[in-house]
Amino acid sequence: MNVLEMAKKLNREFKNDTLSIRADVTPTYERCACGDLGMDFPLYGGLPEGRVAVFSGKEHSGKTTAAITYMAAYQKKYPNKVCVFVDVEHSLDLQFMAHMTGIDWSKVQYVDPVNISGEQVLDIIDEFLTCDDIGLIILDSVAALCSSADYESDVEEDKGQRASIAKALNKFLKKILDKLSATRAILIMINQVREKGKTFTGATIYDEVAGSAPKFYSSVTVRFGKRTFTDGDTTDKTDGEKTDGFRLNFAIIKNKTASTQRGGGFLTYRYDTGLDWLYDTLEVALKYNFISRPNKSRYELVNLESGEIYIDKETNEPLSFVGKDKVKEYFASHPDFQTEYVNMLIRHISSDESNSKDEALLDKKILDEIKEEDAGVLNGGI
Questions:
Q1: For residue 354, is pLDDT > 70?
Q2: Which of 98, 137, 159, 346 is a Cys-bridge partner for 163, taking CB atoms 3.0 to 4.6 Å apart?
Q3: CA–CA gap between residue 81 and residue 66 (Å, rounded)
Q4: Which of 268, 284, 294 is CA-nearest to residue 361?
Q5: Range from 20-24, 37-41, 250-254, 327-331 carrying the lowest mean pLDDT
Q6: DSSP characters for 245-274?
Q7: Pairing of strands 320-322, 308-309
Q8: Where are the beta strands (DSSP E) in the chain?
């Protein structure tokens, strides 16, 4: 019996047509784009479906806001699926998040686990993954999970490592990988970093809580750095007073489904209008010449797949504008074109063949500051 015959036999035995197939015909996985090129570009089109993603970082770095932004995008792509938010921290501002991200909470199953151990929370998520209509799940947060050993003991009783949730997380993640792949659901685990100490050179060592399993079994790890504040086109203000919004900055620490060469990115939010996806998308498109500029003041919207300038369907004129504000106005007044153009950009940035732009999106100084925190994790261990 040759290898091909054995593969067919195994597929029949395990009742799985894709258990053993030729590698060059393996079905590609879908990505869920968040609709903001500031995040979709460094992720090569978005988070991979059917996988685990970890959003980690210090407090107030925007981990939960970014995760819910993805949940809102998932809702739009899969309106018949139900997303789940597990609020272990019991601190989510539902109204603020709806305003910032556009999330529809009426279509989200909100889990508020009171008087429940961390192991039981993980079992609840495991049960949800057996549902046919399950969508994106957010666990907020890994750091807040309380093991049953700790939960059932007195406060003054020190259980040491025996009380860790790490062992349960390791088993849980191994167990659900197949379920996520089968349902195409996405699990976003929000985690925190802690300062562990100093190296002999004086560098700070950081530690991600709850063991190594989230790092090992995630397909994507996004590390969020210090948020900055915005005022019009200024996005790097450190003082939040008299500003119109804020920007989340992040680095892509791990990506098993694409390259990490694009470094990281950003998400910009305005207090009045929420996620400013148009501002971010135009910023990325201009940086990498996705929008043609024959001169300093003129902007031409080019279809990168055909190489031709888009034509306005109403006037039959090329989409060429004087000034960036005119570009914004056109997008704002033509929602159908918005969708067409953004989908084209996402296809373009996801294709290895059609796009060679692999240099980092974020300013090197910002990226280095975020990655320094991660270097501490790698050096310090878990």
A1: no
A2: 159
A3: 20
A4: 284
A5: 20-24
A6: EEEEEEEEEEESSS--TT-EEEEEEETTTE
A7: unpaired
A8: 31-32, 47-48, 52-57, 82-87, 108-111, 134-140, 187-198, 204-208, 220-224, 228-231, 234-237, 245-255, 264-270, 274-275, 291-292, 298-303, 308-309, 320-322
What confidence category does residue 272 fall into, taking pLDDT thresholds of 50, 70 and 90?
Answer: very high
CA distances from 117 to 113, 139, 140, 147, 163 (A): 8, 14, 14, 6, 11
Residue 324: strand, helix, or coil: helix
Residue 97: inside a domain, yes or no? yes
Q: Which long-range contacts (CB under 8 A, 24 or more apart) does 310-313 make?
A: 310/337, 310/341
Query: How far is residue 303 from each of residues 247, 318, 348, measured CA to CA in Å?
Result: 28, 11, 10
| 13 found inside a domain | no
Query: What is the identity of the amino acid at 361?
Result: L
Statement to judge: residues 239 and 307 lie in one domain: no
Q: What is the CATH number of the domain that holds 74?
A: 3.40.50.300
Q: How many structural domains does the chain have?
A: 2
CB hemisphere CA count around 110 (13 angstroms): 13
User: Do 237 and 229 contact (CB within 8 A), yes or no?
Assistant: yes
Work out the average pLDDT over 43-60: 94
pTM of the model: 0.89
Phi, psi of 299 (to 5 degrees): -125, 130
> How far is it, in rounded angstroms, from Cα 186 to Cα 82?
12
Which of 310, 293, 303 is closest to 347 using CA atoms?
Answer: 303
The verdict on whether omega for the bond into residue 20 sits within 30 degrees of 0, i.e. cis, is no
Structure tokens at 282: 């135009």
Token pair for residue 306? 């055909």
φ, ψ for residue 236, nearest 5 deg: -125, 25
pLDDT digits 0-9 by tens, 306-318: 999 999 999 999 9
Cβ atoms 262, 252 nearer than 8 A: yes
Q: What are phi and psi of 128, to 5 degrees?
A: -60, -35
